[in-house]
Amino acid sequence: MSDITLHSPNLDKLEIGKLSAKFSARGDRILRYYIDIRHKTMNLHRELGAPELFILQSKVDALLADWDSKLVAFETKRLFQTGKGAAEEMTAEAIRAQESIGRILAHTLAIDDAIDWEALKDHGEYAMPTQFPEPRPTTAARPEPAYEVPHIGFLDRLLGKRRHLEEQAEMRNARAAKEWRASEAKREAQHAAATAAWALREDAFWTAHQNAKAEFLAAQAASHAKVDALRDALADHDPDAVIEHASLVLENSDYGGLFEKSYDMQYRPADRLLMLEYRLPGPDDLPQTKAVKYVKSTGELTETRIADRDRKANFDSASYQICLRTLHELFEADVDGNLDAILFNGMVESIDPATGLERKGCIMSILARRDEFCRIDLSRADPKACFKALKGVSAASLAVLAPVPPVIEMDREDRRFIEGRDVGGGIDASTNIASISWDDFEHLVRELFEKEFLSRGGEVKVTQSSSDGGVDAIAFDPDPITGGKIVIQAKRYTRTVSVAAVRDLYGTVMNEGASRGILVTTSEYGPDAYRFASDKPLTLLNGANLLHMLERHGYRARIDVTEARAARP
């Protein structure tokens, strides 16, 4: 039986029971898995159960994340011995976060947004060893034995024994010399054999590295050819290349972790129009802490939130800046003249206060013409006034989240199922899953769940890629009890997945009429995400869960979000 992986910085404070299972009456099928967990420091205890190991793993992750969060409050007095200094540091960080909202647009104006095609290529060199690590065999000759002179005394001479003693000495010296020559011949033969074997190993070592280097250079050349092919296709105005190029531009846009970018785009080559549906961060997704105060009596750190009017003003400012920044980056990077106009529809997911249900709506829409937009000096323009002057459509206040009719509706006919492709065959132990393209990541997730549901006749279909948004795959599980239609979303993130993404999945599950939703990411989830999902038909799988699934189905890979984040411009 496979084991459950524990992810917590406080494992030493936990007591974990043995993973157990409940079998069917015939004993041929596991009905449910169980595990017992106790927190020694906080004296908490839970027994968790689930029909599938990966669901149980998700529950364990959610529980440990919640306990880790509670432990922070539990140990506040000990953790913040210098509470005042910690509060001042956190306040300074909160101020910096608030100020960063006002610099969203200015940040990109000092950057050349054109894609550096050479930077996309791997120019690394194969790490060829400088020498064979195994030392060459050595040997040392044993000195030839010295001639032993016989001792002949006066009595020996008197008795006539001299010649006999000399003959005996000659025989001993001859025998010693013969043994020495035989020993030296054997030593030299052994040394020659060891040297020959060493030479074979050395040749094999260098041959293996030469072959590996050739494979490395071939793979590197192939990847360079793909970059060059995309560059050439873009110059030839290929529609798919235009979309791929625009995705590269938006992926390169660094918002400093303010929010995770998510978008969908289409291209109309007839009028060179790029249509973009961009998910904006919600009002509550932006930084809201104004200051942090240390309460000496309790040892707690308490946050002071910004006023509601400032929260709304920040959201309006951020949304208008994100819109103009996105238009600027795409137009500036379009050195081949593929974009005459860009449609930007800003989307926000929220909860309808009248019904309490999830809703997704367009709160701002603009069709920007290249010639008109590029005449604007964005460094001196007011973002909202600029948006309105370009005939953008929005409510007077974006923070009310009032939906507006998009200037142009995006065509949704091509959003359903597409042909899946093999990605798992191209990964190995050196592959960083957090660095592969989001398109490859979605297909890899489909492959994994296809194998997961294969044993019971299930089917998994991938939908058209939409930059980590919407439905990425749909599984059809024929099991009459636990099965049904399952929505699967893949998030190749390098930062913590916010609760907004989990809300989005839940809304999609409801809209699709699905029985369950599964969210798969390369990173982690925050406590709010686990709390939101705890009483809903949702399963959250983090990077560790993903690696466990990959290994279970015969794939070797790794996830390093720090490396992936550093590799992105």
Notes on the structure:
The protein is α+β, with helices and mostly antiparallel strands and 569 residues long. It contains 15 helices and 17 strands. Strands 12-13-14-15-16-17 form a 6-stranded mixed sheet, with helices on both faces. Helix 6 crosses helix 7, helix 8 packs across helix 10 and helix 12 runs parallel beside helix 13. The model has no long low-confidence stretch (mean pLDDT 85).
The helix content is 40-55%
Mean pLDDT: 85
Task: Compute the number of strand runs.
Answer: 17
| Overall morphology | elongated
Radius of gyration: 35 Å
Question: Could you give a short description of this structure?
Answer:
The protein has 569 residues and is an alpha+beta fold. It has helices spanning 53-74, 76-79, 83-101, 104-109, 154-158, 162-235, 239-252, 308-333, 370-373, 383-389, 438-454, 499-512, 527-533, 543-552, 561-567; strands spanning 14-16, 20-23, 30-39, 44-50, 263-268, 273-279, 289-295, 300-305, 341-351, 358-369, 393-394, 417-418, 459-463, 473-477, 484-491, 516-521, 538-541.
Summary keywords:
569 residues, alpha+beta, 6-stranded mixed β-sheet, 5-stranded mixed β-sheet, 18% strand, elongated
